[in-house]
Every structure is written in structure tokens, then in C-alpha cells.
């Protein structure tokens, strides 16, 4: 069934409830539905449904989708006079919407702009449910060790988020769930089992009816040729029937598509998943939780670094540091002409003596127990736009959609080191990737030599982790590389601003501890075998005190202690810089001129390094990043192909990472590829929602619980997607991610609905594909201000 048919079916299903006055405007509807932030309890689904009909009123009798009526006819302007639209001047911070789409055409645009949005993204980034309530994907409730900080709030963040639970009224025992009626498995709990065993009773009274969306066809069955959710599946009638047996009895049986199942089983992993990689078995997780998993490389590495600590202390803590590079001087505006002239002054003589001492001292170091392995080469270029790591939002179904739309590099949501090491199911679930993510990224530089790069061996998906200590980071990398064979790279998150993460010394806190950061990355590089190590940083922790350039220097050349002791560089293959400080809110733009400075610095350092390698202590090539080459990726506010290419051009970054831009319009990757704006119609945008819903059901299951999880993550995405202002409505281009639109209406009702900041509308959108929300389903937006926006818009 295509989208249009689907909408029609939806309309038909709700027919008879079409009681709402069609003459009321979208603006009025939004006012009507304005409500302070209450978790929505869709018991009022009759109203919801009726509103939905009204909103989808663009579907005419007889099944045709009619051209959108001129919104002018439908929407009464709220001011008295019908003033002719006048082109507006571009105002900073305000999306320049054409007058004919404004709900208050003569009002001050800035006054009308959605207020309260300032803290949105800080709140969204920081509102990681793992640090407050459970995450329904993986039962991460009551995570150990977080009690103390339970009540801590990050500004604007909706901390006490609950998502209700979506369960069947009667819970069917697993011994019945995937068996035919007359051949149930034995229930291991016998009479003590409290779950339902009477299949017919369960189907009759114990669960909600099947969904009619997706043509009533089960998306899981469609992909696998069988549905592992069996009778619990909300599409079960598409893969079951009542069969009369020879003795005349009627049996409920589950169907399978033999050919498709055989195809699926070929690629099916130990945990029964296909099309998904990096699935770690239960046994491995149990071994981790029981500390049975060995990490010999990390142990040897940590032992080695500890042994050398005393030598380090003797050498570096007890004497003044000397500068081993001219670069700092250049940065500080000092001239390095003397050094260049080759004259020896008293300082140089002193240096020569110290060099002799250094050589003696170096001899005191214990040799490394092993060298880092050579790394698989990666590549970043103009043709590889990067989807950022995104906690909660960057889940597998969303990444799958982005890859389909052209994302060439994807990252997992940030996984925390300790729970990974302890075998926590939820954390390991973050490592799963869709098969499309393990395809090679695009590579167009066939004529230029990118030394050692084998595109066929490269893949799109990498894992991002947070860790606060070298021992933890190395162990995590060692188990990750052993258990997840499909990783492009492992990235250390040094940009995370979440208080709880930073208080433990991870995330942004590492920016203030460069030596620990370097040691951590070096350790990761030592133990990762062929998997490259990368790092994501911010400008610094504090505003007006950027530190990234110093860090970059340390990472490319190696810190003072490391070079002096012959340990070499940390060996990172790429650095991504988000052009904001930890302290900086999203309200201020990312600093691309600073990113450009850092990019220039990297290039200088690379040159410097090749010169240095002639004179200074030779670094073992295995300690260097692949080929000694460190890729540099810029990040912040990229919202169109125009932004993308201008950053490549002006900041000279290798590629650009896109975060919120992709959440707001995932087809940004398509725009980048096409090099032009794509004015997606509302129904095209809705088809992406449909895809997400389908991918969600295939990932989390098509039973009541899976649907609840899919709905929750769809809503999380819609909490960004509604911000999209169609380019066709804009007076001036390029669109700016920082701009907020004044209240506006779309070119049709669906476009207006998709722009609604009211999460009740998001639930309605979800219902088009996932059916009416479960009575116990709740959703509270991460962005607290969404409730405010509704009032402001009203
Ligand atoms: C909802 C949300 C979740 C995020 N989660 C992560 C994360 O897990 N790891 C990370 O390194 N950055 C995370 N970030 C930061 C983004 O990766 C990116 O650096 C930042 O949003 C700036 O890029 P943008 O201006 O394109 O949004 C998150 C940001 C948002 C808005
Ligand atoms: Zn039972
Ligand atoms: Zn099914």
C-alpha cells in the first residue's frame, strides 16, 4: 500500500467521527489543543481521531488527494485587515517566512518567533534517560551508582520523563507465543505460571486488535519470512490462519514463508537477528558481568604505563619544561627566527645538555610490551558527510533512514565505558548497526592516491564511547574490538556536556586534562588491533578560553612528555571538532572561524612533523595515526549543502559532521549529494515517518511493547523534525539552523501539522502508522519548552 492509500485507509477507519467543524483553522486548532506539559494519555482518542481527520482534510471524497487549498481561504488572519503581503527583511534569528504563510502577517516577526527554544538543544543533548529513568529499549532502570545525582537537573531539561508502559492486558506465556494452538511448548513454570496460556482467550480479550497500517502486513514477517512475535504481533492475522485438521478440529496456526525464511536464516546471527550486525551473545555479556572476560593487552599496557610513571615523575615534575616545537611560538605571535637561523646561543647550549640527559633518561624507560598494530585506513572527503553520534535520537532506525538518504559515515549513540565492561545489555544494544551501515562509504578520489586506503574494507558505522580513565578506555576498546567485528573506528567522546558524565571525569572533562586524554587515546590505539581510534572534542570547557588548538597539537605531534620519552603520538586517525565550548549554549552559533584556525594548524603540524621526524627522535610508524595522517572533521550548525560546501571550502576541513540538521531534515544528505535544496512535500516527509515506523517495528518488534518503543523514538525524532521550515516558504536562502520561525501555516494541512510544536500532534502523526497509542503510553518531550511554544504560538 502506498502512502496515499494508507492515508485514505486511515481516513476510512476513522470515518463517522468526522464531527469537527471543518471551517476552523489550523491556527485555531493549535490554540484549542494548547495545553501545559502534561503527559498525554490518549484515552481521548475519539477527539484525537476527529482532529486527525480534520488535519488530513486534504483527502477528498472518492479517494483523491486534492491540491492544497489556498491557505488564505482556509485560515482567517487573526488581525482585522487583510494587508497585502510585503516581503520581509531578513532579521537575525528569525526564519524569513513569506508573508502569505504567516499566521500574523502584520505582526512583528521576531515577537512571533517561537520563543523558549533557546535551551532546547542543550536540554535534548543532556536529557539522557539513562541518567534518570529507564529506557524502554533495554530496561536500564535504576542503573547503579546514579542515585546521588538523581535530582540533579541540567537547565531546561525535562528530567523526570516517563514513557508509561505498553503491555497487553493479558500477558501470553512464551510457551504459547510462537507455537501453533495444538502444539504449545511446555511451560517450564507449570501450574505456578501466572501468564495466559489460553490462546483464544488471549486473542479475544487479552490484547488490542491488529493494526491496519502497512496494509495490515507485518513488517517483521515481510523482512524475515516469519514473525518471532507470533501471536503477540499486532499484525498477526497477516501471518496466521485457522486451519481445519482431519478430525474436524479448528487450529490456529502461524504461517511461514519458507523461501524468505531460508534466505533470512543464511544471514541470521546467534541471537536470531538478521540485517543487524554487532549483535553480542548473551553468554559474552554474562561473561563480562562475571568478570570472566580477559583483557590481556590492556592489562599489559596499563602495567607498562604504571612502571614508567616514576621515571616520568622524576624527569618532568622536577625540572622546567622546554618547548620542543616552534609552533607554540608562532601561535603566540613570537618569532622563531633564531631557531631557523641555526645560531647557537646560551639557551641552545643548555638545550643540548638537556638533550644528552634526555637520552640517558630515556634509557631508564621500560620498553613497551607490544606495539600497536597497523590500522585499517579510513577516509574522509567531500563525498562523505557524517551523521553525528546522537544519544537517544541516533538509534538504528534513524541511522538507517539517514544512510538511505546519503549519510556516508554514522556513529553509534555514546556508550558508557563502565556498563559496557560490565556487560550491560542496554549499552551493548547501542553497538548494533543496520547492514546498510556496514557498506563502504562513497569514495570518489579514485585518481588521487589516498595511501593505503582500501575502500572495500571500509564501512560507515563506528562506535562512540565515553571513559574517564586509560584502564577503562583500553579494556572497553579491547572487548569492543573482540566482540563487534563491524566497526569503522572507535571514537572517544570528549565533548559530552552532561553533568554526570563530566563529574566522573569523562566527556568534556577530558578537555581540561590533556595529558590524561592523550594517554587514554594512546592506550586505546595500542589495544585496538586494526581498528582506528578517533576523538570528538569541543573548543574547550569554558567560553572565551578555547583549548582545542593546544589539544590538537598534542594529539598530532605528541605531548611533551610523550615525545621526550619516545612514546610517540596517541595515534588518532581523525579529530572531530564541535565549534562550541561545553559552557556555550546552542543559542550561540558554532565558531567556524576557530574551526578554520584549527584546520590550518593541523596542516601546519603535519608539515612540521615530517620535518621534525628528520631531527627529533624517530617515532615508530606504528605509533602514528594511519599513514601519519590525521583527518579533521568540523561540526556545528550545518543545515544545508550550502553550509556543507562552504565549510569545506573556507574552513578546509576534510568533511562536516551533521547532528541537528539531520534530525530536522534527514534529506540534508541528499541535498549535499545533489548540491541543491530539495523542497520536500509534506507527503514525502510523511513517507520518511512511515519508513522510520517500519524500521522501528523491525528493530524493536511489532508487538504491543515494540510498538510502544517505536512510538517513543519516533516522537523523540519528531521533536526535532517539526522545526523544519519548508524552503518553499522562505523568502531568503540559505536557511539557518539557529533561526526560529514566526507562527506559520504550510502549503497544505499536512505541512501545517508537521510543523506543530505540540507533542500531542506528534502522537497523532505516530498514530497514522502505529495505530492509537496505548492507554498507558506517555510521552514528555525532552525539550521542556515545547509546552511553552504551544502557548507562545497560540
Ligand atoms: C539530542 C542530541 C544528542 C547528542 N548526543 C551526542 C552523543 O551521544 N555524542 C556526541 O559526541 N555528541 C552528541 N551530541 C552533539 C552532536 O553530536 C553535535 O556535536 C552537536 O549537536 C553540534 O552539531 P549540530 O550543530 O550539527 O547539531 C548530541 C546532540 C544532540 C542535539
Ligand atoms: Zn507459562
Ligand atoms: Zn508479525
From TrEMBL:
It comes from the Eukaryota. One of its GO terms (biological process) is mRNA processing. InterPro entries: Aldolase_TIM, DUS-like_FMN-bd, tRNA_hU_synthase_CS, Znf_CCCH. Residues 127-141, 312-347 have a biased composition (Basic and acidic residues). PROSITE patterns: UPF0034, ZF_C3H1. The keyword Oxidoreductase applies. One of its GO terms (cellular component) is cytoplasm. Belongs to the dus family. Dus3 subfamily. This is tRNA-dihydrouridine(47) synthase [NAD(P)(+)]. The lineage of its organism: Eukaryota, Fungi, Dikarya, Ascomycota, Pezizomycotina.
